[in-house]
Amino acid sequence: MSGSSASAPSEQEISLAATVLRRLEPGFLPVELFLEITRLCAMPIIELVPLRKHNGQTEVLLFRRAADDPNWPNALHTPGTVVRATDVSDGFSVPLSRLYSEELLTQPENEPVFVDVKLHRSNRGTEFAAVLYVDLTGTVAPTGEWRPSEQLPEDLVASQRTFIDKAVELFEKEQQS
């Protein structure tokens, strides 16, 4: 049930949905439920912008989403993850570890640098994003595509363009000091 054309759920349907949700363990959600919850609630996410200085130019490491991705099929994107209820730790070490092991496929030598927080709408729904960048200069990335920050591709997830630009600006300032 999506959009405003569907009729409002009955009290019985709401009760049934709540009963089913109570049976789920916190953490990774089944995709069908995840997509509906992200439509209804602002999701906390971490966006990680991998950057490097290469031949005097700042480059961004981008990854291609799957062809069957429900929101951004075949689009390029920076690594990101939803913060799960089970990610409670000292800071953001658990979701960052997930990004390093599942998307970057490498453990950066440098700590990530805070860029911004962003409350915005994406194809998936409303997101409250903590944006960080990580300097991968000198790191061999086993996957992804390095792209010049001045020439971001047209098939980039549109909602990421502004925070990538801000991450690049901060990275370049840091490189100059």
Helix proportion range: 25-40%
CATH class of the largest domain: Alpha Beta
According to CATH, the fold-level topology of the largest domain is Nucleoside Triphosphate Pyrophosphohydrolase
Largest sheet: 7 strands, mixed
What can you tell me about this protein's structure?
There is one protein chain. With 177 residues, the chain is an alpha+beta fold. It folds into 2 domains: 9-41, no CATH class; 42-176, Nucleoside Triphosphate Pyrophosphohydrolase, CATH 3.90.79.10. It has 4 helices and 7 strands. Strands 1, 2, 3, 4, 5, 6 and 7 form a 7-stranded mixed beta sheet that branches. β1 and β2 form a beta hairpin. It is elongated. The N and C termini lie far apart (53 Å).
Topology:
Elements: H1 11-22, H2 31-40, E1 43-54, E2 57-64, E3 76-77, E4 80-82, H3 93-104, E5 113-121, E6 126-135, E7 145-148, H4 161-176
Parallel strand pairs: 1-6
Antiparallel strand pairs: 1-2, 1-4, 2-3, 2-7, 5-6
